[in-house]
Amino acid sequence: xxxxxxxxxxxxxxxxxxxxxxxxxxxxxxxxxxxxxxxxxxxxxxxxxxxxxxxxxxxxxxxxxxxxxxxxxxxxxxxxxxxxxxxxxxxxxxxxxxxxxxxxxxxxxxxxxxxxxxxxxxxxxxxxxxxxxxxxxxxxxxxxxxxxxxxxxxxxxxxxxxxxxxxxxxxxxxxxxxxxxxxxxxxxxxxxxxxxxxxxxxxxxxxxxxxxxxxxxxxxxxxxxxxxxxxxxxxxxxxxxxxxxxxxxxxxxxxxxxxxxxxxxxxxxxxxxxxxxxxxxxxxxxxxxxxxxxxxxxxxxxxxxxxxxxxxxxxxxxx
Amino acid sequence: xxxxxxxxxxxxxxxxxxxxxxxxxxxxxxxxxxxxxxxxxxxxxxxxxxxxxxxxxxxxxxxxxxxxxxxxxxxxxxxxxxxxxxxxxxxxxxxxxxxxxxxxxxxxxxxxxxxxxxxxxxxxxxxxxxxxxxxxxxxxxxxxxxxxxxxxxxxxxxxxxxxxxxxxxxxxxxxxxxxxxxxxxxxxxxxxxxxxxxxxxxxxxxxxxxxxxxxxxxxxxxxxxxxxxxxxxxxxxxxxxxxxxxxxxxxxxxxxxxxxxxxxxxxxxxxxxxxxxxxxxxxxxxxxxxxxxxxxxxxxxxxxxxxxxxxxxxxxxxxxxxxxxxxxxxxxxxxxxxxxxxxxxxxxxxxxxxxxxxxxxxxxxxxxxxxxxxxxxxxxxxxxxxxxxxxxxxxxxxxxxxxxxxxxxxxxxxxxxxxxxxxxxxxxxxxxxxxxxxxxxxxxxxxxxxxxxxxxxxxxxxxxxxxxxxxxxxxxxxxxxxxxxxxxxxxx
Amino acid sequence: xxxxxxxxxxxxxxxxxxxxxxxxxxxxxxxxxxxxxxxxxxxxxxxxxxxxxxxxxxxxxxxxxxxxxxxxxxxxxxxxxxxxxxxxxxxxxxxxxxxxxxxxxxxxxxxxxxxxxxxxxxxxxxxxxxxxxxxxxxxxxxxxxxxxxxxxxxxxxxxxxxxxxxxxxxxxxxxxxxxxxxxxxxxxxxxxxxxxxxxxxxxxxxxxxxxxxxxxxxxxxxxx
Amino acid sequence: xxxxxxxxxxxxxxxxxxxxxxxxxxxxxxxxxxxxxxxxxxxxxxxxxxxxxxxxxxxxxxxxxxxxxxxxxxxxxxxxxxxxxxxxxxxxxxxxxxxxxxxxxxxxxxxxxxxxxxxxxxxxxxxxxxxxxxxxxxxxxxxxxxxxxxxxxxxxxxxxxxxxxxxxxxxxxxxxxxxxxxxxxxxxxxxxxxxxxxxxxxxxxxxxxxxxxxxxxxxxxxxxxxxxxxxxxxxxxxxxxxxxxxxxxxxxxxxxxxxxxxxxxxxxxxxxxxxxxxxxxxxxxxxxxxxxxxxxxxxxxxxxxxxxxxxxxxxxxxxxxxxxxxxxxxxxxxxxxxxxxxxxxxxxxxxxxxxxxxxxxxxxxxxxxxxxxxxxxxxxxxxxxxxxxxxxxxxxxxxxxxxxxxxxxxxxxxxxxxxxxxxxxxxxxxxxxxxxxxxxxxxxxxxxxxxxxxxxxxxxxxxxxxxxxxxxxxxxxxxxxxxxxxxxxxxxxxxxxxxxxxxxxxxxxxxxxxxxxxxxxxxxxxxxxxxxxxxxxxxxxxxxxxxxxxxxxxxxxxxxxxxxxxxxxxxxxxxxxxxxxxxxxxxxxxxxxxxxxxxxxxxxxxxxxxxxxxxxxxxxxxxxxxxxxxxxxxxxxxxxxxxxxxxxxxxxxxxxxxxxxxxxxxxxxxxxxxx
Lengths: 319, 492, 224, 675
What we know:
- The structure holds four protein chains of four kinds.
- Chain A is mainly alpha-helical.
- Helices cover 70% and strands 1% of the residues of chain A.
- Chain A has one domain (6-317).
- Chain A contains eleven helices and one strand.
- Chain B is built from 19 helices and two strands.
- The model of chain B has no long low-confidence stretch (mean pLDDT 91).
């Protein structure tokens, strides 16, 4: 692409940041709502996540008298990393707002950094539940990681570049030819990975508050006040970003290819829509599938890796 | 002039032995050392007098020493000096322990001196027949030394040594006869027809069939004395049962003396038959020796047998190196001969110390020398490392030279296998050595009085070997080069 | 009438073949004493052959060599061994590794092998002063027979006997192959042989004192 | 001794640095033997290491090379060195690690005087290995390095286990060296007996394919053993924990890298690459080492053993880069090959930094508590905040988290794999192999995160699990400074990854004897500031600053005036006990379950009940994994070989008749052969 003057870059960055920040809690809200409806409940209002965050933000924090600086500063690391990641994925446009700052590996790395900080913080209070959640979370992510990278690698190798912008532009360029078996296999793999990474059925139950079943929630057990708000928001944001990556890598259609207000606005709306679709799919899973025993997770997540690798095989061995 | 020197060199130990035979106590030690010093000075003088390329002759060419002979002569004197230096301490302990009878003391020193005399004679004589006589004499005398303490095992070892040695040397005689016969039709009936200088000069005209047979029997015969598999079976018994100073002489020098004889035949054969025939045989039997020595080193219960088998291994390596030929390998062989002699002698001496202190030669008994016997144990550990050929040991250099030289000469498989076997033998040595030094020591007799002399005679040789691994002094380099020239005389 | 080279050749051939025959007999006997005297007989035949060659070629030191052989191998050594034998309790070779008949057969086989393997023609035509085609193979056969005897016997003394047969074979080679070696070497060799016998004597005596017998079955402790 | 820099513009100081480094090491060794001044030894070796570091950086910056030669044995030069770019890279890594390691023990006295003397000599031997340009001087330095490190592992007063560790190490590396020796000899043979690398490179194109493959296999086996790659790794997890921590730091940080250096030097530089099969082989070895290494590391609860297994993992990552480079080089895709090779070098340097840091941290913990076992540690962060901070940085770096250095090199490795999998020049099978390696590498990095969360968290966070841990105190100032230095290096190498990577690219190209880059536009790159265009970019500096800014903003926003209320940790209402916390073992349990097929865990639960009741009075739980290679392959093989040896020893049965028979048979055989 041609070089872009700084002002555009700043504008796009701010726009995308704002979009993600404002939209992420709403996405979670819709998921909860759909799930409730599917369970024939009414469920919380669509603004409930915003209210929760505001409530925690104002609360006086409780800190374990065991925990120390790690627990105190980890939330900032987590959210900081994910916010940065949010700037490195295409949303409204077929290019990332920060052109070629970093590629998909950087995004994956930032997620890993967030996970590292959170998992560490969970152990700070010396709580059994924190340790349990942290241990299970890193284990599950470890299983998910190959699928995640391999799925994206398929797209990257097809596009000849691991830059998410390039990938999405390539996808748009190919039009419907994009949807070849290799691509679909990779998309399926990525879908499974999203489930694992965002803690939905059958991997984790996002709404549980029974200690022994918690994975992600277990790590937040000792957090409170603004720390809790930060961490919860970070996880909501992570869901949104992953959804954005999915649509950019596997269903990029509609994203703006040239920098004009119209297409950008359209792309933004379509981006939101795609995220909402993915979210409702997750809600459907939550409502319809039971949570699996942790021992069975390797099969599921291994399936993701196998699918992605199969996609790569098709791509490489029989071009 | 040279006649006198040679005469002194040979007669001093013989006469000294005759005097020492009936004596005992300090007196016999003094006589022995005095006689040896006379011989040693003569020997070193003679050895150093030999010019690089030329030779020193005496008795109208009956005695003729070139650089190789001088090298063997010098090594004999040095190792013998170490062994004799260690003898009093060892023998006194044996007497105190009752393993030796009081009368045997004189016999020990007398036989020791005669053994040295026979060993000295080997590199002096130019006549293959007399060479054979000298080697046979070493067998006879050393057989008496091996069995000097009359334990059943010692007698068994000596008996086997005697019988197998005689058989082997019988084949060597056959070889000598055939060499003679192969020359008769050229030289006619002349007493110098066995002088290898003459043989070399007319080698191309020798009868090839007889020469081939001759080398085969020389390989079997002198190979027995060298300890090449499968002729080696006497070696571990004799070297382990003999008194440690004698073991030092046997492993350090007498093997080299026999190898020297074998080299002479090899050179004649190469001159007469071209390099391939004898070289191939040497490489094959060298490799066989290394391969067979390995399992015996891995599973060994007796410290001195371990060292003996490592001698088999190194003789095999030397045979291979000689077979390889080529400047690099031969240079390596030349240095390796000396380094092995010195190291192995030191190892046997320290092994003797340990065996006496622990009252056993069993590897399972000799443990934890790090505390119990710092000097002898340290010398043993260091010596094993040197023997294994890790820097700064000079043997690292020589083994590098032999292997690389061999492969550059086209003996790929042989040299590669040799490298592998060397590594494995080192591992065996290292494992045994680490157990000896650090193993869990049982109830150990408190360390014997450490006298400085012992520390010196155990440490100094190893330091020399280490120094030679990092730097070759000029004169030695020159000497080695001329030896290399002789070894490769009719090589490519 | 003069003693020509041809006669010498005949004599040498005859002697060497009969020496081999005796060797085979030694392989086939149980009694150690008989073995010793057979060895002596070999030595006498040997010296006779040498003397014959000496006469034919008129070389004095061969005559001298025959004399030395006769005295050392034919007389001194057998006497010494006989002396040792008298000192030992057992004079029979009991249960050898290879029984008398079998070792007789084996010896004959070895002789055949030797005569097939070594033919003097292949080794560069006529060797030595007189062309005695059977001498060299005979001597090799003798050498191997000696080793066969040493291999198959249990008694230390019988092994020594085997050794002597072996040595006789070597001597036969020396004379059949060459004019005999230079005299000084000859002397040295003989002296060495005597020394060996002496040392063997020493050790057999020690074995008797320590083990009470000359059987080599006790001499199997050093292994591995 | 002649020392000359080639193309000597502004490089006049470099020879001085080299001589100074060696002299200081020798001096340090000498000083260590003198009782009164032995405390000076670490300082001197620190200075020497700094000189080596300066030499390495100077060579890299000036682009010149340094040649020297020394005394002769049998006409073979004991010292014959030429430091080019490749040497310089590893020399710089060595400088970092060695300087910190030596600094960390300043003021402490070694376990014994010989060991104090051996350490600087060990460092010197590494310097010589990295420069040697002839077979003999290389192997001399190489074997000296082996012997000295083995001695440093074993020490003067070892336990039985340590002795066997030392034996295994010495045995494996020595046999491996035999392989290298043979390979060198083959090279010498095929270049007319020449022993120097330059001549070999000249003769390499003329090698017969068989010879070339034999050489490649031997060299790979030999150097992979030193590098500790699977399946040649058995010695590593035994030897490294046995050594003192600063020695482990150098062994793990640098010494095993000499294996990588040797691979690059011989295969890439001298032989000019190998066939596709070799690339795939190295790639496969790398992938297996990476995954299995980190899996085994996760299962450890001995801190230093854990770190040792992580060395295997990182060697695996480096080998993935190297294998990719070989695959691409074999097919002439030079630009991408250079990228992958640079990735391998970069990760070597990075690993030298953070692994040394982590070993020093482990040393600090051992120093403070006397404990190796994670399950008895905990809550050290309050007692040793500085150590926790730097250890955390090291942990994040080795886990490959942006913007630290580990991420940069792994990013490059990934890009190399993407390139290989995507490039049409490469065999389809090899492309698929590269793609699979992507998955392996991703799994490895994720597992590394898990492992280092465990190591850091269990050690420094929560409540102390033993009295010793509760009584810990911060480590010595020199050690803290040394670790801080390495932590800073990790950050700087991460943020300055752009220039570093481009420098390494030039080195990689010159090592591959390739000209200037052809089409850089399409080649991914690590830069400082955003690039532009199609090729993937990682703008290390700007991304790093962005992350820092984001974190700062969030932190500032979420800080509030009122201090938090302190309460007990929530444990369902019971008063929290240290025993409630997850231990290292329990933390790794889910992964142990996930991978039980290859870890083959054995668990043993022992419950004692209160007499007459069903209430357990004590429950003991022990869980161990099976190291398949050792348990199922090596131990049986060892037993078999011993049996074989015993069988062979029947040759010497004791009967003299048998021995005579040997002679007769041999003679007959010879006679028949000669006919």
